[in-house]
Amino acid sequence: MTDILNALVALSNFVLIPGAAYGAQLALGALGVTLIYGILRFSNFAHGDTMAFGTMATILVTWGLQSVGISFGFLPTALIALPVGIAITGLLLMGTDRTIYRFYRKQKAAPVVLVIVSMGVMFVYNGIVRFIIGVGDVNFADGARFVITAREFKEMTGLDEGLAIRSTTLITLVTAAIAVALLFWFLNRTRTGKSMRAFSDNEDLALLSGINPEKVVAVTWLIVAALATTAGVLYGLDKSFKAFTYFQLLLPIFAAAIVGGLGNPLGAIAGGFVIAFSEVLITYAWKKVLEYALPESLEPSSLVQLLSTDYKFAVSFAILIIVLLFKPTGLFKGQSV
Amino acid sequence: MITVENLHRHFGGFHAVDGASLKIETGSITGLIGPNGAGKTTLFNVIAGRLPPTSGRVTMDGEDITGLPPHELFHKGLLRTFQIAHEFSSMTVRENLMMVPASQTGETLWNAWFGRGKIRAQERALAEKADEVLDFLTISHLADERAGNLSGGQKKLLELGRTMMVDAKVVFLDEVGAGVNRTLLNTIGDAIVRLNKERGYTFCVIEHDMDFIGRLCDPVIVMAEGKVLAEGSAADIMKNEQVIEAYLGTGLKNKQAAETA
Amino acid sequence: ESHGETVKIGIILGFTGPLESITPDMAGGAEVAINEINETGQFMDGAMVEAVRADSTCIDAAAATAAAERLVTTDGVAGIMGADCSGVTGAILQNVARPNGVVMISPSATSPALSEAEDDGMFFRTAPSDARQGEIMSNVLMDRGISEVALTYTNNDYGKGLADSFQSAFEAAGGSVTISAAHEDGKADYSAEVASLASAGGEVLVVAGYTDQGGKGIIQSSLDSGAFDTFVLPDGMIGQQIVDDLGAGLEGSFGQLPGSDSEGATMFQEMATEAGINPTGIYTGESYDAAALMLLAMQKAGSTSASDYAGAIMEIANAPGEPILPGELGKALELIAAGEDIDYVGATAVEFIEPGESAGSFREIEIRDGAIETVGYR
Amino acid sequence: MSLRAPLLFVAMALLIVATGLVQGWNLALTILNMGLISAIMSLGVNLQWGFAGLFNVGVMGFVALGGLAAVLVALPPVPDAWNAGGLRLLGALALGAAVLVAAVMAWKRKVGGRARALVLLALLIGGFFLFRAALDPAVQAIEAVNPSLTGYLGGLGLPVLVSWPVGGLLAAGAAWIIGKAALGLRSDYLAIATLGIAEIVIAVLKNEDWLSRGVKNVIGIPRPVPYEIDLQRSEGFAAQAAGWGLDPVTASTLWVKVLYAGLFAAVLAVILVLAQLALASPWGRMMRAIRDNEVAASAMGKNVTARHLQVFILGSAVCGIAGAMMTTLDGQLTPGSYQPLRFTFLVWVMVIVGGSGNNYGAVLGGFLIWWLWVMVEPLGLWAMELITSGMAADNWLRGHLTDAAAHMRLMTMGIILLLVLRFSPRGLVPER
Amino acid sequence: MAEPHLIGEGMTGGYGRGADILHGCTLSVEKGKIAVIVGPNGAGKSTAMKAVFGMLNLRQGAVRIGGEDITHLSPQDRVAKGMAFVPQTSNIFPSMTVEENLEMGAFLRRDDIRPTMEQVYDLFPILRDKRRQAAGELSGGQRQQVAVGRALMTQPSVLMLDEPTAGVSPIVMDELFDRIIEVARAGITILMVEQNARQALEIADTGYVLVQGANAYTGTGEELLADPEVRRTFLGG
Ligand SMILES: Nc1ncnc2c1ncn2[C@@H]1O[C@H](COP(=O)(O)OP(=O)(O)OP(=O)(O)O)[C@@H](O)[C@H]1O
Ligand SMILES: Nc1ncnc2c1ncn2[C@@H]1O[C@H](COP(=O)(O)OP(=O)(O)OP(=O)(O)O)[C@@H](O)[C@H]1O
Ligand SMILES: [Mg+2]
Ligand SMILES: [Mg+2]
Where does the ABC transporter domain start and stop, copy by copy (chain E) (predicted)? Predict the structure, then answer.
């Protein structure tokens, strides 16, 4: 019996919880990507760097707060700074839209042109972030890192295996759930949300219905700023902030948004978990779990690993491709241009 | 002859085509009418291979053609137009027509690279043919315009024009008349009759303009709610109470009564 | 007659790209040596040395080649301190350095394959060979009575080479490696790797990576999930930053990095701190040494032409001669000018073996009370 | 066509010449050579996107396969490794392929819903373990052969030029498999699928050491042109160089680059002519029709799937050829250096900035963006100097900015990219 | 006589930098009346409608509503002035449900829209059944009904319809024409393009025949219907 419990705890500790944490992080990022795709109809390559910028802004404010001695108890101080970070990022995004994207929107440029333009923006944000905060690792987490550590868990339960739960994991999961619910409600139930969908569906007709495109775009960027900054800060609290890693996050985030179905918030969430779990599960070495779960005589001598971790990205992409082969526009029937 | 046997096409729980059976006789101009949402376009889409049927069978001259992809059906001589115009918007109007004929020499890369001479002759013939068609459709001045820039009606004409670029056996016309000027539509009607008489094309025509149907089609098949409601000559159909109730309405009946009177 | 001339040295490192967070300190290290030389005013009858930086991008061989081409043909550098990643280093060596006859001293390219590259005697490196460090690491573990380890390495020539050499040495010595799992640098999440490492088990986890890259992510994730408490850290993983970042988690972890029982390392740390660069940054000492060696060799040959001074590098690096520590470059210049032999020791106890690479003696360290403490030399 | 394209090409040539005059001809030729290769890559992508609207974001994978070809063709075989496990390895691969073929055949059988799925699953899982059981020992044996220098099977020892077409074939083969599976996907969904496949290709290259030494890299790939050192040592060449008024070192470095440039230019010219002929033919018209409206094209008798597959294979093959050329030029294969940013997205930038759908545009974009990619570094530094020139030497900001100067590189790239697209949103040489 | 409620006067212009499509075209409608535009394909009917709605840059001419010059207003501002427009093509939001399409029509309204929506459903009963379905999945005729419904939701004072009956079945067409008369009686100004010209001209107060971007014939609906030349050349005999 305890063996079974140990097996379950080991599986949770190394697969389920980390997978859920990573999945929720990807999901939050993917929400932003999917929203831009859904409303403005292009894949925004600058999203990773937008997350980096938002996080950087939040970090700077956090430092400010910390230096005057403000903290948030067992929660990270960065959460207090977050709204300010969002506001700054919002300004940046709206400014970018004004100076750059709007021109192409007016021209009715093909989506792929906007994609390339967003690459240009990506390079520029890239530079801005590195100018301001540099290229190194920045640790800005404070407050309690764990809700429960592996050791505490072992002591509490007397099991051989520990179970660690980080506070950021919980915050991220809760935030992702709230964000997707809010976004879903906003897009499908509110007037502004519907007008945004209308704008994405048929821009000219939206105009004829009296919808103000500039307002739609501004609201979109503001929500994106909130999503990107929140995602970036939560990720940074969990791991650490480093500009290059945020750029690298872009690919799994895109993968999540696409496999879930572009333009669909629920899809972004589902996609995040699909990507995260396919990375963790397929390359997992089942040895330990089986040792607990199976009788002595059947215990495996090898690692019982389907593929080595070298292939974890390959595997997650392979799963993504297989999903797409069966569901060509993603799990939740996304849009396509 | 095209036969459709007990054809079903469902979208989720909705039965757009719900057990339709009908025949399109070789050499006929068959009309297909019915209320909006009766399943006419869906039926066309299934016959022409655009949508797979949920169940049922389609044959052409005895051969089972159910579920064949559109391009194979095209090669068998089955052509169709689209209710909502599907032009190649970034190509010129002439190119839109010239791309239609199948098995052009220049459509293989080998010939594109090494058979320039042959291609040139064929292209010239194609361009001439295209210009003839454009002339007929009264849009020859637009030959070099991007098709995306055409007016709504002109796009419908282009749809029709494509079917005139090749020798087809069976042509399915989905509301080519909607949005087309009535004077021009009459000319088109004449052309359809001529193609039917002189070249033996079989036509199946969806149209809501009863004048047009009445003038051209025999027989007329009426669909409603995914099934065949009635079939017969145009005159019979227009007197059919069921059809009047579901489709024609009393307004037109009154008008026609007035006109005949 | 070279009085008042300017000698240019190219510094080609990946200032953008995956290694962008460590390269500024590396370049800084090299520039510390250059400034030191300039301040003496005794280099080649009063010539001044100027550093010209260029971006290797670490990953883009073609861009790196173009950058090196510019340094050599446009700026006319007399030697190249670089490059960092083995891939671009090989490309620059073959396509620019060799054809133009320019010396390259890389502070960090550790691929064993580079030893065999055709180099016409133009290529040197101050980074220790992966093969040697593997053996040392195996000894360190064996001496501590540890016989079962899990191993993860960064998936490049450095990590792979080190992991391979360690594994074969360790297994030959009777130890067992439960799993050898690669990790990619700069990725978002390392749960999958840690899950497999934990499942395979082992007394300690050997992390052949970089302090601010995937290696740190792996350790962080292992600590979070309680998978391992003790880590074995080779050179790429040792730096004060990671100790500060991970706090108590690294307590009791140990490892080794190139270094000898000389004051060189400490002296360099002081100099670096003064110059405002991170003294424990990876490969900063190696960069300092690379630049110093190159310049001293020029002094020795009395020429900035590679064909003249390339041969002098080995002579200077090794005994016999007066040992030279960081901060003593002025003395070295004087000795050379006086026609005496020197034995450059530098920040990393440079000792060159054929074909021009560091033999490497190692310093064993352990993390105690949040500090990196030296526990011995090997 | 207007004068725009020729003028832009002249301007591009002038840029390169100016680079030569200001910064030296070696640098100019280096840029030109990679520019030629970039132009070929961007032609390949243009074939897929510009002609047929296929959003292939897996360019990197095909380029890498081309690079692999250079190793497999040009390096000498490693007899010890072949003896250790070469045949066993080939057998294992054949077994793996057989399992896959069997699985595909089982899948194609129209009968038996759930039973078929189960059989398929059993086949795949069983086959996978069988395959691993056969493969792993062979791999271990091969990789154990002098791992720091070889540890792989080596190549065929043929002239490296052979690897260019072979690279194309390798990429084409991969494209065929990928196309069969994934071309049903549209727009961004196809994009992410191809991106994923490219990542898988790179993962294989990085981790299958028996194939091309994985991350340990293969260096010293033989060249199709002489080595500078040999030229410098040759009496005849020295005399020649003196005749040109150059010292042997400069002359040899220039000469080698000129030779490469000639080879690359020839390949580019052939591909460009073929692409241009294809675009202007009925085939090109058919492709554009498919790009504009697949549904209508298919109703007009065009086999959309087959055409997509064809053009996907062609474009990928072109990328593969370019990849082999690039690896030849670098003289080494370093799988770790294949990054999507550089080998996929930068190529896309070339196509879009040049003008998608237009072969000349793609070529121009290839040259221009490559030139920028190399030149933004000094441009960025220079801009930074300009910005900081007014500041005091010990100004904190100045120090901070100077430290960050390297990042001006990407920023400059971004700004120039945005400027170019601002003034010609449809590319420098638009389709029409 | 006071100026007509809606007037597009001497409109000249075209798309982008291309050639002019309209050449001094004039259209006007009195308040609560119906004006119908007919003409061959490509005559510029849709272009004229777009010009009146501000979706085209006019080089010459003016558009006035109730005497107020609105030539330089954006389309949204014209919606705010009580104008509604059903374009000829892409006139629905395809991925939104039928009901959401109708709601978007009422985007600028702040009052209760339920009654109007009920009216639309009464007029087009099929839409009630399909109200939760994405409009892009509807049949051609059903889409057309959604498009007209969307415009009616605006409760406009000027209603502009570009071929509203294209593709709708006779029974719905009759309903639609009846409804248009009703709407006009309620004081709403109606400007529409029709190819079902005979039915349309029967209910028209004013008819315009447009040829090559210019007015060719103008008169009451009856006059045009009675003109044999017009009948033969434009109305199909
Ligand atoms: N993709 C789809 N998903 C769901 N329902 C659909 C889809 N396509 C069509 N339908 C439904 O099927 C029914 C039949 O549509 P179809 O287009 O065949 O009608 P139709 O007879 O051509 O009508 P019309 O005369 O208006 O063109 C309609 O009620 C429509 O809403
Ligand atoms: N977006 C556009 N760009 C350029 N030219 C256009 C554009 N739209 C229409 N045209 C051209 O303007 C002319 C008038 O088009 P318009 O759509 O106004 O015709 P219409 O009278 O409404 O015809 P129909 O009855 O066929 O709808 C046509 O010749 C067409 O080719
Ligand atoms: Mg229909
Ligand atoms: Mg029109």
Answer: 6-237
Q: What's the order of all strands across the beta sheet hosting C79-82? A: C48-55, C6-13, C79-82, C103-106, C123-128, C357-358, C352-353
User: Both D83 and D63 in a single domain?
Assistant: no
Same domain (yes/no): D334, D259: yes
Q: Taking the domains of chain A in order of start, what are their residue ranges? A: 2-326
Looking at the structure, tell me whether residues D22 and D108 fall in a common domain.
no
User: Which domains occur in chain B, in start order?
Assistant: 2-87+166-260 (3.40.50.300), 90-149 (no CATH)
Please enumerate in sequence order all residues whose Cβ is within 8 A of that of D344, keeping only pairs 6 or more positions apart, or say none: D57, D58, D59, D60, D195, D198
Residue-range definition of the domain harbouring residue D92 = 78-153
* pLDDT of residue C3 exceeding 70: no
D283, B107: Cβ pair inside 8 Å?
A: yes
Q: At B119, phi and psi to the nearest 5?
A: -60, -40
The token pair at C115 is 């030893």
Q: Do the chains D and E touch each other, judged by at least 3 C-beta pairs below 8 angstroms?
A: no
What local confidence, expressed as pLDDT, does residue C2 receive? 43
Does residue C208 carry a pLDDT above 50? yes
Query: Based on the structure, what is the number of domains in chain D?
Result: 2
pLDDT at C27 (0 to 100) = 92
Backbone angles phi, psi at A124, to 5 degrees: -70, -45
Which tens digits make up the pLDDT trace of B45-84? 999 999 999 999 999 999 999 989 999 999 999 999 998 8
Joined together, the tokens standing for residue C184 give 């990619």
Mutation pick from D285, D312, D358 vs chain B, by most beta carbons of B within 10 Å, is D285
Residues D206 and D325 in one domain: yes
The ipTM assigned to this model is: 0.91
- Decide if D274 touches B, using CB distance below 8 A: yes
Chain A residue closest to E88 (CA)? A205
Nearest to A257 by CA among A26, A48, A54, A51: A26
User: Which atom from ligand 1 is nearest to the alpha carbon of B208?
Assistant: 25
- For residue D377, being part of any structural domain is answered with yes
Q: Is the pTM of this model over 0.90?
A: yes
Residues with Cβ within 8 Å of residue B42, at least 6 apart in sequence: B9, B16, B17, B51, B226, E139
Residues around ligand 3, an ion, CB closer than 5 A = B 41, 83; E 139-140
Task: Give pLDDT tens digits for A247-291.
Answer: 889 989 999 999 999 988 999 999 999 999 988 888 888 888 888
Q: Go through B178-188 and write b for each residue having 16 or more CB atoms within 10 A of its CB, e for each that does not.
A: bbbbbbbbbeb
Last residue of a domain, one of D91, D122, D153: D153
Residue nearest to atom 7 of ligand 2 (CA): B149
Across the interface, of C66, C155, C156, the residue whose CB is closest to D27 is: C66
Task: Give the pLDDT of residue C1.
Answer: 37
Q: What is the block-wise mean pLDDT of chain D (432 residues), using blocks of 10 residues?
A: 86 94 90 96 94 91 96 94 91 93 82 77 88 90 85 92 96 94 86 90 92 88 90 88 87 93 97 94 93 93 94 96 95 88 90 91 94 86 80 75 76 88 90 76
Do residues D68 and D92 both lie within one domain?
A: no
- Which ligand sits closest to the CA of E38? 2
Same-domain check for residues D68 and D173: yes
Same domain, D120 and D186: no
pLDDT score recorded for residue C319: 77
Distance E106 CA to ligand 2 centre (A): 28
Q: Domain A2-326: which topology?
A: ABC transporter involved in vitamin B12 uptake, BtuC (1.10.3470)
D192 vs A271: CA distance, rounded Å? 13
Q: List the helix and strand counts (H, then E) for chain B.
A: 11, 10
Residues of B in contact with E211 (CB under 8 A): none
For chain A, the residue count is 337
Is there a contact between A22 and C24 if contact means CB atoms under 8 Å apart?
A: no
Nearest CA to ligand 2 atom 31: B150
D194 with D323, same domain: the answer is yes
